[in-house]
Specification:
By secondary structure, the chain is an alpha+beta fold. The chain has 2 helices and 6 strands, in the order ααββββββ. The strands form 2 sheets. A 4-stranded antiparallel β-sheet has the order 1-4-6-5.
């Protein structure tokens, strides 16, 4: 009799244990999706901040070549625009391998600033990611309104660099930390630098055109 009671109690405890394990598995299944989605969102945001810092640092280093006159006479070579040559020769090496540069992810816009009496500097110029028909447009595309101007001594210059990095949650959260580029979803990062070119001795460099892809302030 005692043995039968023990077996009955063991079966009841076993069923209770299975019930608790089933409840835990169900709770995990319910919470796992939002938990891992939130984890991926944190990872994406952290990676985006890393991209921004890497691009800012690379642009600060690269624009010194413009500011000191070492990149004041770039011209198109072998179907590459002057902006693409600047990216290959100066911007990508300054990134030190932290950003992908081999597949056209980077583009630049270099514009000479035309001051006016009411708007004397580049703070009035728009510095937004170029978007057309809901898709991001690199600066080396003529529809983006970007251009590469060969800066002259003592001129105001505005340089913008656009980097198209990976978007890990672009499919789940379209339009949030991501944009469409062709058939891909990317995370566009924009870095901007404005400065006065140093009074270096000018040689045979090409004068910067105006408005050079941008409308001067009115």
């Amino acid at each position: 009799m005692a043995s039968q009671n023990c077996r009955t109690g063991f079966r009841i405890k076993s069923r209770a244990g299975l019930g608790r394990r089933g409840a835990v598995a169900l709770e995990f299944a319910i919470l796992a999706i939002p938990f891992f989605t939130w984890l991926m969102f944190i990872f994406e945001l952290s990676y985006d901040l890393f991209e921004q810092e890497a691009l800012d640092g690379a642009l600060r280093t690269a624009v010194r070549q413009i500011q000191t006159g070492n990149a004041d006479d770039l011209t198109a070579i072998n179907n590459l625009g002057a902006g693409q040559i600047f990216v290959q020769q100066y911007l990508c090496p300054a990134a030190h391998g932290l950003l992908e540069c081999n597949n056209g992810q980077m583009s630049v816009s270099v514009q000479q600033i035309v001051p006016s009496a009411t708007q004397p500097d580049f703070s009035f110029y728009p510095t937004a990611i170029p978007i057309k028909d809901g898709a991001v447009v690199p600066f080396n595309d003529s529809s983006a309104g970007g251009a590469y101007c060969n800066a002259q001594p003592k001129t105001l210059v505005l340089v913008q660099a656009l980097y198209l990095g990976p978007s890990f949650l672009g499919g789940l959260l379209p339009g949030i930390l991501s944009a469409r580029y062709g058939s891909s979803i990317v995370h566009p990062t924009l870095s901007t630098a404005g400065f006065v070119v140093e009074p270096y001795p000018s040689g045979n460099s090409t004068p910067a055109s105006n408005p050079c892809g941008a409308t001067p302030p009115s």
